Amino acid sequence: MDTLDKSILAELQKDGKQSMQDLADRVNSSSTQCWRRVRHLQDQGVILGYQAVLDSRAMGLQAMAYIHIALKDHGEQSVRDFLHIVETSEQIIECCSITGDHDFMLKVVAHSPAGLERFLMKRLLATGLVRETRSNFVLRECKSRGALPSEVI
User: Which terminus of the chain has fewer Cβ atoms in its 10 Å neighbourhood, N or C?
Assistant: First the structure.
């Protein structure tokens, strides 16, 4: 990955919707060369996709929590079953495997705190896979940005 690729990635993280000509102008390149570079970065799996970033509160999701999960056992099937729940639950917007007392950390959204409780009780705990949870309700998001820092690009 050279300097042009890094510049392209930094610009696309700022605005993934910009035209190829605008991108080319911002990185001092031709639109044809930019198109080829972007296509190559997509083919290599560096660029995973493009999406609109929505305001969860504007969409009526008034409750958000980080839920730490400790599984009852760490067998391959239990982990696979849990990850299937994660993949099929739209309320879970992030999931990370973590170190420490818990196995996973989920970022979950709902219309209300009662909705978060229903999700926790009926979707997660009812599976029989979870030994323990610890929830932290989000009072306010101070920074929510998925872009990688420019110094690592």
Answer: N
